[in-house]
């Protein structure tokens, strides 16, 4: 039931308005998972309440799992049961008891036991529904863990290839690499041949037992030759092991990767597209249109690395490749290869970045609507890319809508983003409707700045203040613009460039009193432009006697301070 | 003494008879009855001083169902020729109690339980009493537990409210 669930299913509680950022999403899905695990714990610990079977036909995944041992007498059936339930210690005990009682244990069963011990390294696996414990003991047990396996192995009257295989793979898994090679030599001495699993394990262990890159590669080649001699056909996992080992071989590995991939193609092995960056072009042309199944457990991580590598090479600005990669995701089960939400966000981040750089704004907006917010939450860098794209294509009128999205995504506390947006809006004058929408947006931003209950309050800068004021002036909201001037004083910033604009707007309304006030304010800020302003006001406005007096006072005071 | 002896023999004969009847009935069921609630008092909140807030669901009386109220439990077993109505009712009661206890103090109104084919959908209105990750934990827990209990997929759909929506004060 788990694997067939809708992959895009996400927890969704309506109206709890905080779920629009990436981190809470992940937190909530993890919370839901842990709730499910808690329920599974109860179900498996008290199975008697969940035995009644309503379902017709029977749904086996909804029944409690039997985790307790049923068969208790010393017999082969008991050993089989313990192996199936993955109870390593109990299985080993049962095996010893069987041997003591003199019952011969069949070769297959002993092989199964060896497999079990090798897989779990001699300690019981943690219960799937109990809280995960990554203990240090697991690591330290590695070298001693194979004692049980080795002991049983040595006690076996006859051993076949499978027994050797179990032992070697267990040793490689738990880090006893040189022992693994010794056992392999043992195998050859007993005139048995290895099988593909043994070789895979040995290849992946090869880099650990040699020092230099060349020696490592030689060892791998040696193993491959032996494989060919023993007529063992390599599989996908073999090649994956070779490639993984090559990554440990540094630059030598890179040159050797080409022929390996070519051989893979020649053998017609369904590729898992694990490769290096240089060969990606070829790989892409090969793999387009085919569907992959994640056959190797490391595939997901490596595939997402491929995605990022691909998009990195697309920073050579190849939008066509990016589209091809993106369409690949739609084939079959490839979406699974994209990895978890972290890798997804990297992938979509780079994809969106590329789009903003290369494509026309309409295309960008189309992708924006598609990707956000269902697949990807852009970070502030992504939003800045989008703003730049808008700027390039002269669609600044869309900024108020983008601002709404920015607020919703929680990026409204990023000062650089907000300031950039404001400066874009303030740069030029727009047609009246757009200017009004800009003014509304600017007032919204101002409200944000002046909110006192924020955790990290935004601090005014000269740039943001001037931008907001000029937007308001251009939209002819003079009253609010004047209020902004007061804010300048409060925030200790100086409104250098705005005085002329203010003068223009005051002239439009022909308000002499305001003009005088303007000059006074400018003098209080000690702006260099004050004398200029004064002259203009005296010339262009009809001033009363009082106003003239005020002005001349100011003039003298500024002249004195000069 | 004699009277008590007689009583006691009577008692023992009655007991023996009862025992025999019980012994005959041991494979069958017995009636379990709760206190009586007449239909003119069931699910009705009486008008009081005017200080008791009451939701729409509580304010409208049962005869308003299908007129001004909907159903809280939606399934097809009450249709002609369908069976299992009693089982569905008992399941509903169990689910309501389970969720009342699991989300204690968080429910804003009665649950609505819908059955679509095999799927059991529990629609709940909740208050914002707990932080959201706790809600998600409880939702995952309840869904899993009920799925395994009733052997059918169970989904919860939750809507959050700031506070209980009051229809009027009675």
Automatic annotation (TrEMBL), chain A:
UniProtKB keywords: Mitochondrion, Repeat, Ribonucleoprotein, Ribosomal protein, RNA-binding, rRNA-binding, Transit peptide, Translation regulation
A Pfam family that the UniProt record links to this protein: PPR_3
Protein name as it appears in the record: Small ribosomal subunit protein mS39
GO MF annotations in UniProt: ribosomal small subunit binding; rRNA binding
Location of the protein in the cell: Mitochondrion
Record-stated family: Belongs to the mitochondrion-specific ribosomal protein mS39 family.
Keyword Iron-sulfur listed: no
Source organism of this protein record: Pygocentrus nattereri
Signal peptide: none
Highest taxon, organism lineage: Eukaryota
Record GO biological process: mitochondrial translation; regulation of translation
Matching PANTHER family: PENTATRICOPEPTIDE REPEAT DOMAIN-CONTAINING PROTEIN 3 (PTHR16276), SMALL RIBOSOMAL SUBUNIT PROTEIN MS39 (PTHR16276:SF1)
Any single GO CC term annotated in Swiss-Prot or TrEMBL for this entry: ribonucleoprotein complex
Chief subcellular location: mitochondrion
UniProtKB/TrEMBL annotation, chain B:
Organism of origin: Pygocentrus nattereri
PANTHER family reported for this sequence: MITOCHONDRIAL 28S RIBOSOMAL PROTEIN S24, SMALL RIBOSOMAL SUBUNIT PROTEIN US3M
Entry keywords, A to Z: Mitochondrion, Ribonucleoprotein, Ribosomal protein, Transit peptide
Ribonucleoprotein among keywords: yes
Gene Ontology biological-process annotations: translation
Gene Ontology annotations for the cellular component aspect, listed alphabetically: mitochondrion; ribonucleoprotein complex; ribosome
Family: Belongs to the universal ribosomal protein uS3 family.
Protein name: Mitochondrial ribosomal protein S24
UniProt keyword Iron, yes or no: no
A Pfam family per the record: MRP-S24
Location of the protein in the cell: Mitochondrion
